[in-house]
Amino acid sequence: MIKEKVSNKAKANKAKVVPLRQPICLSVHGLESQVCGIMSNVIVMLISLGWNPAHIYIWESPSGVAFVSGSFLDNTSHLLFDIIDSYNALQFPRVSQHFDGKGIEKGVDFEVTFSLLRAYRRNKSGKEPRWKPEYAESRAAALETAFSGSLWPQSRVSDAFPDVSNECLWCGEPRADSLHDIYLCPHLFESEDSSILETNDLVEEAIEKANSNPCLWFRGIATIDLTQLPEEVMGYADSFKCAYELDPPPVGEWPSGDYFTDGGGGRFSSVASLRKCTIGIAHLVDSVLVFGCRSPLPGAVQTVPRSEVAAVLVLAMHLSCNAVVSVFSDNLVFVNAFKKGYDFCRKMLNSDIYI
Ligand SMILES: [Zn+2]
Fold this sequence. Notes:
The longest helix is centred in the first third of the chain and has 19 residues, at 77-95. This protein folds into three domains: 2-94, no CATH class; 128-226, no CATH class; 238-354, Ribonuclease H-like superfamily/Ribonuclease H (Nucleotidyltransferase, domain 5). Mean pLDDT is 85; it is low at 5-26. It has 17 helices and nine strands. The protein is 38% helix and 14% strand. By secondary structure, the chain is of the alpha+beta class. It is globular. The strands form two sheets. Strands 5-8-7-6-9 form a five-stranded mixed β-sheet.
């Protein structure tokens, strides 16, 4: 499955394939009655999510990304992720109307939002637990409660059940809302819990910002506008931009021998929205570097596993026709997949760069 921005190339490809018998109406209204099988069901689902299934092999997402299928054996993970994103994007405005949900309408960065929760659930530092199990479990439960809007400050209880007082049960503050419960209650400043002590310095900022962005300050939900750079400054390369070390032979003339490949995600690799991957290749003879090459990983899909595969692809692009090489990669998943052959690799997540 090839994922690419809708481009003239993609549009040209569309012209080469057999067009649908009926032009597609890009509105879901009334189409439900025409569902009579799996494909029409899929088409209506895609249209309802804002997609344009312009052809059986080319589906365009609402963000202008075209998925071009080359084979039914292709891995479809990227496509499914984008379809899920489309569904979530349609739900954000509705969900933002829920308790302390304002801000969600801007979109949620799920990876950043759930990163601490995943760390608590995993609770590993090497082979050892990172926290005491009961500590990690209680923090994870607290985070899930906040994420799901299940905190009930006394004001919320009183709104739902008017017979109940809205006063803070700890300090008697009238109408104890989320800001009071989470940041302002004097009871919090008497706490010896390290998690509370370490975040008391956020109180002033919370007073200033929480009511305009309650989903972050009261529920811990990070919105996309806070975590992602605008696309125009992301600076993704649209193709491999190779820089060379020690004056290697021209492209297409690299010799037989031993090549070492690697891929990395850069300084902020743990934050998906900031990750910028690079590939590296080194040609060694008798443990001495003869020449090397590095390039940014092109495209919006920036993952370390993809850069590991791309490093070998770039190497193949440089080799002479009859070169016989040994490639050393430290990515076991890629090595194992490669050994199983092309058909297996086409089912992998980065199937589009196995060629
Ligand atoms: Zn209080």
